[in-house]
Amino acid sequence: MLNTFLKGEAGTRLRFMGMLLSAMLVLLSVFTLTQKGLNFGLDFTGGYLTEFTTSQSVELKELQSFIAKNHNGEFELTAQGNSHFQLREAPSASATANSLDWQSAVTQNDDINAQVLSSAYIGSQVGDELFDQGCLAMFAAMIAVMIYLAVRFEWRLAVGSVVALVHDLILVLGLFSLLQIEFNLTVLASLLAIIGYSLNDSIIVGDRVRELLRVQSNNVLSPATIINNAIKSTLTRTLITSGTTLATVASVWLLAGAPLQGFAIALFTGIVVGTFSSICIAATLPELLGLSAKNYEVKVDAHTQTLLDMP
Fold this sequence. Notes:
Layout: H1 2-5, H2 8-36, E1 39-40, H3 42-45, E2 47-53, H4 60-69, E3 75-79, E4 84-89, H5 95-108, E5 115-122, H6 124-152, H7 155-179, E6 182-183, H8 185-214, H9 223-255, H10 261-280, H11 285-288, H12 302-309
Parallel strand pairs: 1-6
Antiparallel strand pairs: 2-4, 2-5, 3-4
Helix pairs in contact: 2-7, 2-10, 6-7, 6-8, 7-8, 7-10, 8-9, 8-10, 9-10
């Protein structure tokens, strides 16, 4: 059904509409990032992290209200399960005293009867180093990708792949900013995985476009038709690969628990937008930049041409 819809002008209009939608989503993501920023976790900000369990199921709001009565500073309480909770406190001079107060309160209360599993402090300097090193790793990966694309593809296809890659990262970051999902080291690691996955999808489509352009030296088909044919020939493989990967990531999202939830959300979103961008950006932008079969014609020098023209 999709292959039929991608034929002719309908497929071209669909690709350009998708590209317009992508541009709107990128602008919205950038606006959200500038206004709300990212909700950095303790991996980057530093602070106290305490995990504890309760003897029976307790509502998160009720437990949060109870702790607030015995805590003078700011804190964030999240549920890791029905009776498993995690409390995060920003680093401050009174944080140690606050920790002792609320921990004593929840452990001595008969209705809660909490048991502290672990309590640790993460310094802000360590968080800064982790953030800097993580960003450096992502930047190095981007540079390596650009060099690889510049060598492998004609520049128009390379530009389309790079723009699609940046598009995927911005949309994932925009989603985390919009929903204020915690951004920690596991999410940063998922961004590196998204770079590889997005690049893989774009290269598959780009390779097919290049192959079809090379066999169209007589320019019988228009570039739009060639690109539509390339997408149709790779669409089934792309959907199967993306579908099986999404099923695996969804299982991690639903079954692995809160520690890997951010990682799974980022990777799930990255796979969806990566598949979308490989069609609507990586394959469409080169067409706007003037990609044609002439870009892959074999160039013959004057001496060789003279020899070819000789009887």
